């Protein structure tokens, strides 16, 4: 494994559903330890990009490299190894509704480690406590609130102390306080695990609170039109659209649009 | 409330413009004039500007704005100017808002040639693609079964036991009802014919052989397709919409091993057991009808004993295995390939039941023809 390669490198990626082009010619790096935000208006392909990055969809053109290794060109054993290092939360939760929170969180541990049942139960208890759900082991996802489901999803995502954390709209549908708490939780996870974080979101508050790198996807030109630290992009992006997005509709230079 | 008819009047305005004066009740409660009549009136005039005017007694709501929007679009295509400054403040703002974003230009679909539209290979090609997908699914199920045999599949025993319970004990009530009635129906059907020869006692043979070879397995399968096959499709379809299947894949777990195998195996195990139970209940139903026709229970059972053979039972059980596999595969295939909306889940469920029942009948016919030729 080459250590100086960026943690994730997206190379000339084109995404399409059949003949329907979503985004094309995306090239960017996510460095080790970054909190990287994928942003853009609704329906521009943010979640689709994330699903490409976690290997669910195959690129139409281009490739994605993780510390220099291509996911699409590795065999099953190599993919298994790469996935071991990822923690993912989904837009709609993605918790298995037929399993309790404990079983949900235990699943990656059963899948990737040789731990016994009692050791797994201990780790599950610890992970649930980390996200503020201590004692909720035997609840089913449908029995807890939306914010708790998001946190349970986070517990499952961090079960294996991942290297890369992927979040698809983590704070969608949460009230401002819960979503701020979730942001803090994500930052703490990142710092204590030393993980790289990739987030799909359009919540400005989250973007400025946690991100240090970002890419902006545009639905009209079907490609990325900005790349870099969102705070800087707000001030001096060459694209009016990006400045307006980041300044919440006000154009970047203080005058209202 | 005064209700004046909604109307407009066109007249020559100053400086080469046409005035359209709106008056009356332009509201959703009253019929508004059709825009096409105005359009044809406007065709007659040469002015490049249309000025909207309003009468003092104008009542308006969305009906007026919808009409104005058509005027706006008309002017846009003819490159005329629409002067809306005389409209009430609210109406002007709403019109401005609804015209702020240009309407989506829908590219005219390329006209397809006659040959392309009638292309006889298109449905064949679609059929081929769906056949390919189905074969791929069956292939991955076989691979997963292989992995399971080697003890390396991600299939959880608790899931299997759950589905076993769902498909077995919980289905007993409805299986009891349907097979009892089917046994009765068979008996009635036979009794009417056999009575002509004074051979009522052979009703027992008819019911027993009919249940064991055919109706026991088929009726149970139809009930299970509607009950369990549909449930499988709905469960997996919902998991697809809630990104649960994505989560399974990204955990490095094969959805076929994790989700399909426990369901498939549960049905394969439970179907023969349910069929044995259905056979028993069906024969009881037949006996009840026969006793009403002068065939005593002892006579009935004595006659049953002569035709009940292991071969007959095995034919039914063999069918049960095939049917169980078909139902589970149809349900799981539809569920896993479900789209990501709630409408798609409904579609997947319908598909699962329809496919399962069609395949059940086709398979049943094929098995019967094969057995006939083998002389079993």
Distance between the termini of chain B: 86 Å
β-strand amount of chain B: 5-15%
Rg over C-alpha atoms of chain B, rounded to the nearest angstrom = 35 Å
* Dominant shape of chain B: elongated
Number of helical runs of chain B?
A: 13
SS content category of chain B = alpha/beta
Q: Indicate the percent of residues in helices of chain A.
A: 25-40%
Task: Tell how many strands the DSSP assignment of chain B holds.
Answer: 6
- Please provide the count of β strands of chain A: 10
Q: CA-to-CA gap between the ends of chain A? A: 49 Å
Overall tally of structural domains of chain B: 2
Beta-strand content bin of chain A: 15-25%
Which pair has the most extensive contact? Answer: A-B, 23 and 16 residues
User: Strand order across the biggest sheet of chain A?
Assistant: 6-7-8-3-9-10
Unreliable spans of chain A are 252-257
Low-confidence stretches of chain B: none
Structural class of chain A: alpha/beta
As laid out across the biggest beta sheet of chain B, the strand order is 1-2-4-6
Order of helices and strands of chain A: EEEHEEHEHHHEHEHEEHH
Shape of chain A: globular
Descriptive account of the structure:
- The complex is a heterodimer of chains A (257) and B (376).
- Chain A is built from nine helices and ten strands.
- Chain A has 257 residues and is of the alpha/beta class.
- In chain A, the strands form two sheets. In chain A, strands 6-7-8-3-9-10 form a six-stranded mixed β-sheet, with helices on both faces. A four-stranded antiparallel β-sheet of chain A has the order 2-1-4-5, with helices on one face.
- In chain A, β9 (213-218) and β10 form a beta hairpin.
- In chain A, α3 crosses α4 (117-130).
- The N and C termini of chain B lie far apart (86 Å).
- Chain B is an alpha/beta fold.
- In chain B, β1 and β2 (17-23) form a beta hairpin.
- Chain B has two domains: 7-98, STAS domain (Transcription Regulator spoIIAA, 2-Layer Sandwich); 147-374, no CATH class.
- The A-B interface holds A 51, 54-56, 79-80, 83-84, 86, 88, 90-98, 107-108, 111-112 and B 154, 235, 238-239, 241-244, 246-253.
- Chain B: It holds the Pfam family MlaE.
- Chain B: Keywords: Membrane, Transmembrane, Transmembrane helix.
- Chain B: The chain crosses the membrane at residues 171-195, 215-235, 247-270, 276-301, 313-336, 348-371.
- Chain B: InterPro entries: Permease_MalE.
């Amino acid at each position: 494994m080459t250590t100086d390669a960026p943690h994730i490198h997206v190379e000339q990626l084109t995404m399409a559903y059949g003949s329907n082009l979503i985004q094309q010619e995306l090239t960017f790096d996510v460095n080790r330890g970054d909190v990287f935000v994928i942003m853009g208006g609704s329906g521009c392909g943010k979640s689709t990009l994330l699903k490409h990055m976690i290997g669910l969809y195959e690129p139409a053109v281009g490739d994605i490299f993780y510390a220099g290794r291509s996911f699409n060109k590795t065999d099953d054993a190599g993919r298994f190894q790469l996935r071991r290092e990822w923690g993912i939360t989904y837009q709609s939760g993605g918790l298995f509704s037929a399993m309790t929170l404990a079983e949900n969180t235990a699943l990656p541990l059963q899948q990737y480690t040789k731990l016994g049942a009692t050791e797994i139960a201990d780790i599950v208890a610890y992970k649930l406590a980390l996200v503020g759900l201590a004692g909720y082991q035997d609840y089913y996802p449908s029995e807890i609130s939306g914010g708790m489901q998001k946190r349970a999803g986070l517990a499952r995502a961090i079960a294996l102390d991942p290297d890369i954390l992927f979040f698809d709209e983590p704070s969608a549908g949460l009230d401002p306080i819960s979503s701020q708490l979730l942001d803090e939780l994500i930052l703490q996870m990142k710092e204590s695990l030393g993980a790289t974080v990739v987030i799909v979101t359009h919540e400005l508050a989250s973007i400025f609170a946690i991100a240090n790198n970002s890419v902006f996807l545009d639905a009209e030109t079907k490609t990325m039109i900005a790349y870099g630290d969102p705070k800087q992009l707000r001030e001096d992006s060459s694209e009016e659209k990006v400045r307006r997005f980041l300044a919440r509709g006000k154009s970047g230079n203080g005058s209202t649009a | 409330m005064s209700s004046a008819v909604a109307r407009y009047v066109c007249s020559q305005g100053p400086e080469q413009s046409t005035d359209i004066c709106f008056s009356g009740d332009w509201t959703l409660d009253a019929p508004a004039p059709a825009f096409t009549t105005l359009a044809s009136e406007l065709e007659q005039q040469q002015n490049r500007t249309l000025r909207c005017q309003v009468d003092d007694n104008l009542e308006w709501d969305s009906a007026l704005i919808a009409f104005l929007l058509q005027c706006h679009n008309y002017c846009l295509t003819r490159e005329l100017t629409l002067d809306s400054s005389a409209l009430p403040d609210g109406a002007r703002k709403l019109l401005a808002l609804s015209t702020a974003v240009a309407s989506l230009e829908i590219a005219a679909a390329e006209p397809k040639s006659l040959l392309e539209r009638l292309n006889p290979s298109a449905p064949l090609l679609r059929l081929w693609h769906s056949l390919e997908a189905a074969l791929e699914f069956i292939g991955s199920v076989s691979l997963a079964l292989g992995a399971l045999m080697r003890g390396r599949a991600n299939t959880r025993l608790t899931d299997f036991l759950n589905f076993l319970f769902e498909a077995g004990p919980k289905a007993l009530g409805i299986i009891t009802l349907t097979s009892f009635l089917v046994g009765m129906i068979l008996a009635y059907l036979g009794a009417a014919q056999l009575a002509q020869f004074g051979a009522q006692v052979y009703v027992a043979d008819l019911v027993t052989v009919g249940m064991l070879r055919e109706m026991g397995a088929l009726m149970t399968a139809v009930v299970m397709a509607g009950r369990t096959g549909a449930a499988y499709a709905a469960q997996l379809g919902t998991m697809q919409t809630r990104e649960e299947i994505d989560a399974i894949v990204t955990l490095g777990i094969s959805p076929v091993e994790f989700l399909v195998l426990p369901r498939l195996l549960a049905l394969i195990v439970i179907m023969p057991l349910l069929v044995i139970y259905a056979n028993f209940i069906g024969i009881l139903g037949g006996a009840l009808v026969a006793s009403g026709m002068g065939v005593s229970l002892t006579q009935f059972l004595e006659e049953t004993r002569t035709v009940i053979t292991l071969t007959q039972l095995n034919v039914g059980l063999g069918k049960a295995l095939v049917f169980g596999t078909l139902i589970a595969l149809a349900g799981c295939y539809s569920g896993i390939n479900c789209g990501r909306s709630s409408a798609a889940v409904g579609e997947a469920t319908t598909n699962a039941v329809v496919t399962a029942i069609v395949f059940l009948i086709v398979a049943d016919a094929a098995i019967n023809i094969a057995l006939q030729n083998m002389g079993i």
